[in-house]
Amino acid sequence: MSPASPARTPRSRRLRWCLWMVPIVLAGVVFVLMGPRGGSVAKPAAPATVVTSVAATRRDVPQWISSVGTVTPLNEVAVKARVDGQLDRVAFEEGQMVKAGDLLAEIDPRPYRAALVQAESAARRDDAQRHNAELDLARYQKLSTLQVVPRQQLDAQKAQAEGLLATVAADRGAVDASRLNLSFTRITAPIAGRLGQRLVDQGAQVHASDAAGLVTVTQIEPITVAFPISQDQLQAVVAAQRRAPLQVQATARDGTAALGSGVLTFIDSQVSATTGQVLLKAQFDNHDHALWPGAFVAARMLLATQSQVVTVPAQAVQRDQVGDFVYVIDASHVAQQRRVTTGLSADGVTVVTHGLNEGERVVVEGQGDIQPGTHVAEATPKPAAGASGA
Fold first, then answer.
1. How far apart are CA 281 and CA 227, in angstroms?
2. Model pTM greater than 0.85?
3. Using one digit for the tens of pLDDT, what is the confidence trace for 50-99?
4. DSSP reduced 3-state for 197
5. Measured CA distances, 289 to 286, 292, 346 (Å)
6. Neighbouring C-beta atoms of residue 308, cutoff 10 Å
7. Cα 263 → chain centroid
8. Domain 64-74+219-305, CATH 2.40.30.170 — does that match?
9. Is domain 109-184 annotated with CATH 3.40.50?
10. 47 class by beta-carbon count within 10 Å (0-12 exposed, 13-18 middle, 19+ buried)
11. Domain boundaries, the chain
12. Per CATH, is 76-108+193-218 categorized as 3.30.499.10?
C-alpha cells in the first residue's frame, strides 16, 4: 500500500485546490451580477416647474362696448344784455353755482322807468279821448234817428272813435314794451348751472348788440357724455335698447376712477361717412360734479350679460397657428395642452364655450416654461393691484 501513496498526493492537492476555488468563483459571479446594480448612483428627479394656476369657474360675464367720450352739457347759455345802458351792479362771482332766475347783474333802470311813465301817460290821454269820442258817437246816433245830424257827420264820428280805440291799443303795447325793457335791466340766470369767467366789469356800458355777453352759464346737473361706436355694433345696440334702457359707465381715461353711471338717451340718425361710426349720448345725474364739461372720459355701455358661463383669466388662453389652447393641470400635477373654443372677453376674463369644464385648473403664469407633459408645482396667484386682503 505504501507505493501507491505518492501517486495519490497530487490528486488530493488538486481536489483541495478546486474546493477552495469554487467559493471564490461563485463570489466573483455574484459580484459581477450584483455589482453594477448595487453600485450604481440613482439619478436625481428633475425639479417641478413652478407655475401659477387657477380653477375655471362659472360666472355672469357682462358684454361691454367701450369708447372714448366727451362730456357735453345739456345747455350752455351766454348771458347778454337785452337793453342798452350802464352796468350798475354785478351780483355774481366767477365759478358760482346759480339757479334759474337768480340775479346776475343790473343795468341803470332810470331811463326805462321814465319811458314807462311817458308810455302810461300817453295811454291814459288817448284812452280819455277815446271815451269822449264814444260818448259823442252815442249822441250822434240818437240825433241821427231824428234826422237832425247828417249821415256823413255820424260816419266821421264813428271813424274817429274807432281810430282812438286803435291808438289806445297801441299805447297799451308801448306800455308793455316799456315795462318789459325795464325788467330787462335786471339780468337773471336763464338756467341753473355754473358760471364761467366774468366778461364785463361793473360800470361798463353794455349794449344789446354786443357780441360778447356778460358771463356763460353751463348746466352741470344733469350732463351728457357723447361717444362714438362702430357701425358694425349699431344693430346690436338698437336691438338691446328696444328691450331695456342701456346702462353706460364713465371712468377716467386711465380707468383709475369711476365718474358716474348713466343711461343711453340718444343714437344719431346717421353714420359718419368718413369714420364709419355713429354718435351716441348718455345722460348722467352728476350730483357730485365728477363729470366736467369738455373733459375726455372712457365710456363703456353694457349691451348684455351672459349668465353662468365657464370662464378663465384672459392670460390663461394662449394662441398658436392652430387656434386657442390652455394648459390644464391634472391630478398628477402634469401640465397638458388642451384645445378650447373661446367666446366673449370682458373684465379680464374669457368665456370658454367648449373644451374645458368647471373646476379644472389652468395655468395663468409660466406657460413659456412648460411643455405638454411637464411636471409642475402650483404657486398661489398674486392678488390684483388694489385688491383688499380678503
1. 6
2. no
3. 888 899 999 888 888 999 999 999 999 999 999 999 999 999 999 999 99
4. coil
5. 5, 7, 28
6. 11
7. 10
8. yes
9. no
10. exposed
11. 51-59+308-379, 64-74+219-305, 76-108+193-218, 109-184
12. no
